[in-house]
Amino acid sequence: MKRNAKVSTAVIRRLPRYYRHLCELQEAGVVRISSSALGKSMGLTASQIRQDLFCFGEFGQQGYGYKVDSLREEIGEILGINRGHTVVVLGTGNLGRAIIQNFKFSSNGFQLLAAFDVNPKVVGTTIAGVPVYHADQLEDFLARHTVSVGMLTVSISSAQGVCDRLVAAGVRGIWNFTNHELDIRQKDVVVESVHFSDSLLALSYMISQGEEDLPTEKEEKP
Amino acid sequence: MKRNAKVSTAVIRRLPRYYRHLCELQEAGVVRISSSALGKSMGLTASQIRQDLFCFGEFGQQGYGYKVDSLREEIGEILGINRGHTVVVLGTGNLGRAIIQNFKFSSNGFQLLAAFDVNPKVVGTTIAGVPVYHADQLEDFLARHTVSVGMLTVSISSAQGVCDRLVAAGVRGIWNFTNHELDIRQKDVVVESVHFSDSLLALSYMISQGEEDLPTEKEEKP
User: Fold this and answer.
1) How far off is chain B from A104, nearest CA to CA, in Å?
2) For the whole model, what pTM was predicted?
3) Which CATH class is domain B9-77?
């Protein structure tokens, strides 16, 4: 599969959405879909869809649309879903616990190996089958297991310290829920932060604008 | 303040980030910042920053940079932070509870009025000072209070039903954490969904690509 070298952040951000929509289409029994129908369900134009997917090679056939299962598989491949990624959770407060219990890591290609905390009430227990170890055991665990990603749901004051320990032990990515802007020197370590405030402020903007000039994905330049 | 009519989704998505960075700069005592320094801290080019802010009128002065406090205030104004938005939370499981306890609604211009659940163990209690009412009281509450946004942290099976009730009662926006694609017919109601899986898959993509071709914001077309 041909892949064009430079892929913009905007396209990368849309890839998981494609994947999600294609999974839903497949579950609904849809076998083949045109770029215009796929676009409609995603709030994108057909030409933007064709441009996005062209970044990763030639999918689909002119006039026949895309085969849902193989496009889903190809995009999953691009996203790294079959690479055997693993994750550990740092911090099992309400947010950590909610994500451990409800988020389908395996559907996204990740195996959730363990969680870490310092609270004696949870250390030694399991959450949805996931063992919770004391944070002191983190380095030992990381030495014995290949861990791709550390998910940070610790307090904001502990965030940088825990992040430093994960990076020193060789994790490749940090999934950051702490709202702290992590300082990472290693260029090969990637941070993905979930900022709830960015999402709520975007909503605030949209409801403030009122009906007449609500933005749509269509206005985004491809 | 002049505002250009068509603002792309990409720019809107960056506005909350500008706001967040400017708040941090202000807290750190920074009075004035150049577009290149602001860009550096946000992973954007100076020209992209100038272009983004130009969508909303003329900020800053050639050669003098931006005044941090007034730019923060202007962007806050654009985002609707001073409009007296209000929010109620639907569902006080781990995720709802985590957000009620830890998320600073007021810093984002929202007043959190109440939470709703069906669980007899939590109905009648308060979470971080927020009263929890029975879901049956939702319509009555919405009739007596002006509520801008309903935050959905119910189970995926309850999501559409609760959303329909919120929309029928006149909320302007839905902050959706349920991973369900909500079906809303009213054009003046906005949905903002937080999809944890989109975020983890973007991280999966980036760690799968390895060091040599990690995407940066700079590659994004303005």
Assistant:
1) 8
2) 0.84
3) mainly alpha
